[in-house]
Amino acid sequence: MKKSFTLIELLVTISIVLILITVGVPIVTGPVKKEAQSQQINKAIIFIQRAQSYARNPENKDATSYSVARSGDELAIFRQVTGPTDTILEDEKLTGYKINTFTGKVQFKCFDGQYMSATPSTSATQPTIVLQTGSLKIEITFDASGQPTGRVI
């Protein structure tokens, strides 16, 4: 007599394996997705901190301030000097992100590279930037000292 599996036994085994896969995939991919989100938030924050670094640099004495502002649908760093126009810094755009919302003004003032602050909007709130990259939406806010923080919304 030959021993073999019945059709019901095979179907039950396949069903159990599929259930384990369905439950296990989100557990495995969750941390990977969270890491990717953290990287996108950090990329945006580092871009904003670059403007702060320009403002801190004592070699930039001819500039009065640096700001992060909208340039089309992208964020860009602008250099302000005494006069009527701002200069956009070439190669200083945050690509791959689309601006959904930009409230307030993000400006870092130069005082011999020693002081910088985020300028709040006309309301009592600090500036807020909402960026989108793919299906991920990121909100960047600023504390009273001008330090940016980000979160997924």
Question: How are the SSEs placed, and which strands pair?
Answer:
Layout: H1 7-56, E1 63-71, E2 74-81, E3 86-94, E4 98-103, E5 106-109, E6 128-133, E7 136-142, E8 148-152
Antiparallel strand pairs: 1-2, 1-5, 2-3, 4-6, 6-7, 7-8
Short description:
This protein is α+β, with helices and mostly antiparallel strands. The chain has a single domain (9-152), classed as minor pseudopilin epsh fold.
The helix fraction, in percent, is: 25-40%
- CATH fold-level topology: minor pseudopilin epsh fold
Unreliable segments (pLDDT under 50, ≥5 consecutive)?
none
Structural class of the helices, strands and pairings? alpha+beta
Element order: H for helix, E for strand: HEEEEEEEE
**Rounded mean pLDDT score:** 81
Separation of termini?
63 Å
CATH architecture: 3-Layer(bab) Sandwich
The total strand number stands at 8
Strand order within the widest sheet? 3-2-1-5
What does the main sheet amount to?
Answer: 4 strands, antiparallel
The CATH first-level class comes to Alpha Beta
- Morphology call: rod-shaped
Please report which band the strand proportion falls in: under 5%, 5-15%, 15-25%, 25-35%, 35-45% or over 45%. 35-45%
- Number of helical regions: 1
The domain tally reads 1
Output the radius of gyration. Answer: 25 Å
